[in-house]
């Protein structure tokens, strides 16, 4: 444990949080994917940041690019407790044409390259590259230890997945020691893990490097006109071919209850986002947000407790198998299997069933909403019915392949203008 603590003191986390996440459709029209709300009160980026802090890493940088205002504001409000006098830092690094007036961040590797001088100032031995848009709980100390003990040039975090499901990932072909012998991007026939013919190792987009090593590699990559300046596309395959790349199995560092499955989600589509949020209302959800030993830190608004009012036969404020956040007022509404974020106000005779309702939404009387995601600050008009007629819903709203309807205020305004 002493060695692990020493390693985390000598490491920093570099969080890549610049991608839009276009598969979330209108949910990322006004915010970058890592800033999308999740789980009732958090944002997606809080998971990577919390993992770093809980692991003992106190030097963190966040690279931003696409529509970063809400992400920056969230980090300023919720992650402002780092103190430089304790050798703690959290820096936000917007794309700012620091190395050239011709381009912003051109790829994940270029985001680090453009900030080499800032990383140098941290005076660290190791850098942990993280994606800011996944939901999981992981102890990076364990991965750091494996990296140092193996003498690897890079250690890649890997998910264990059913082999044929790995066709959607970058797949690591490894030998019996865990050394990566080839890297395949979305292969039609993924290579199996040694001794487990039905399993494959898929990249999580998490990398551990010795800073001195990757610093030189980044500078060489920046001079290569044929490179896309991306870790997964360019740097990792090059190290696999010419250096020593090792795979770290997420199963060994995932934070979970005993015998629980390893939890990792890319909530990159409307269906996946809805499903992961609704799953939190299960009796025993796979993702434990109540774990005080590995808390998910976030910006917590000062709100009053949730309030439920009216108790009449057809006008009862009630929530069953649901999560209701602070500041909500459930006034004569029936809520089932739903997740309501902060300051959602619902009115009499409305019904919410399998609904994910983002903050500051108002649901007016007699609305019936099933299998929906409602964007923040939406005002649902009186009597609106969604989730019962997919063809009618698709006329005004976005209906996903899985039958989930996404509702935004712009969609409602267009509907109102046509009526």
From TrEMBL:
One GO process term, biological-process aspect: glycogen biosynthetic process
Domain Nucleotidyl transferase: 13-281
UniProt cross-references to SUPFAM superfamilies, sorted A to Z: Nucleotide-diphospho-sugar transferases, Trimeric LpxA-like enzymes
Domain Glucose-1-phosphate adenylyltransferase/Bifunctional protein GlmU-like C-terminal hexapeptide: 304-407
Pathway: Glycan biosynthesis; glycogen biosynthesis
Family from the record: Belongs to the bacterial/plant glucose-1-phosphate adenylyltransferase family.
Role of this protein: Involved in the biosynthesis of ADP-glucose, a building block required for the elongation reactions to produce glycogen. Catalyzes the reaction between ATP and alpha-D-glucose 1-phosphate (G1P) to produce pyrophosphate and ADP-Glc.
Protein name: Glucose-1-phosphate adenylyltransferase
UniProt organism field: Paracoccus tibetensis
Organism ancestry: Bacteria, Pseudomonadati, Pseudomonadota, Alphaproteobacteria, Rhodobacterales
């Amino acid at each position: 444990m002493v060695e692990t603590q020493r390693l985390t003191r000598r490491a920093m986390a570099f969080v890549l949080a610049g991608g839009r996440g276009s598969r979330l459709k209108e949910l990322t029209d006004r915010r970058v994917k890592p800033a999308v709300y999740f789980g009732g009160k958090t944002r997606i980026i809080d998971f990577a940041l919390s993992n770093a802090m809980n692991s003992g890493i106190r030097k963190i940088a966040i690279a931003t690019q696409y529509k970063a205002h809400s992400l920056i504001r969230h980090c300023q409000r919720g992650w402002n407790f780092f103190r430089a006098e304790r050798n703690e830092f959290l820096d936000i690094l917007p794309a700012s044409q620091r190395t050239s007036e011709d381009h912003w961040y051109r790829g994940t590797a270029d985001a680090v390259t453009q900030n080499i001088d800032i990383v140098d100032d941290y005076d660290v031995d190791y850098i942990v590259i993280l994606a800011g848009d996944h939901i999981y709980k992981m102890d990076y100390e364990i991965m750091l230890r494996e990296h140092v003990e193996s003498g690897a040039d890079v250690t890649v975090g890997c998910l264990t997945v059913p082999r044929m499901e790995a066709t959607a990932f970058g797949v690591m072909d490894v030998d019996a020691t865990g050394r990566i012998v080839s890297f395949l991007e979305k292969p039609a026939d993924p290579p199996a893990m040694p001794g487990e013919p039905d399993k494959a190792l898929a990249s999580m987009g998490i990398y551990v490097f010795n800073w001195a090593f990757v610093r030189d590699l980044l500078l060489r990559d920046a001079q290569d006109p044929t490179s896309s300046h991306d870790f997964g596309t360019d740097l990792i395959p090059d190290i696999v071919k010419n250096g020593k790349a090792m795979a770290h199995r997420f199963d060994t560092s995932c934070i979970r209850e005993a015998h629980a499955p390893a939890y990792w989600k890319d909530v990159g589509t409307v269906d996946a986002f809805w499903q992961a949020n609704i799953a939190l209302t299960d009796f025993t959800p796979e993702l434990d947000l109540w774990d005080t030993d590995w808390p998910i830190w976030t910006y917590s608004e000062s709100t009053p407790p949730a309030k439920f009012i009216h108790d009449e036969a057809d006008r009862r404020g009630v929530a069953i198998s649901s999560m209701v956040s602070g500041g909500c007022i459930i006034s004569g509404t029936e809520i089932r299997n739903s997740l309501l974020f902060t300051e959602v106000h619902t009115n009499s005779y409305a019904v919410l069933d399998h609904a994910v309702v983002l903050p500051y939404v108002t649901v007016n009387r007699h609305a019936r909403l099933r299998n929906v995601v409602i964007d923040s600050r939406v005002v649902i008009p009186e009597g609106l019915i969604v989730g019962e007629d997919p063809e009618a819903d698709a006329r005004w709203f976005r209906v996903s392949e899985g039958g989930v309807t996404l509702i935004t205020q712009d969609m409602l305004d267009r509907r109102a203008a046509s009526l």
